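User: Study the fold:
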Amino acid sequence: MNKTMLLMLAVALTACGPSQPSETVDTLVANPERIKEIQRLCKEDRTKVGDELCLRAAEAAKRRFFGDRPEQKSK
């Protein structure tokens, strides 16, 4: 049983490739050129870039455009 589990663990770990560095919305806000580059890549081939990174770039662009305005409360 233990050998089977070790073999499955080894197969699972070899299937995992190196992950790309995670770009957060905050790091993108600080780098507008990177936002533009990601948005261009998303327009060309969104499946290659990935939905999550495209959404982060969109959120970063929105934050840069609107700034840190406080939210208005509804009456």
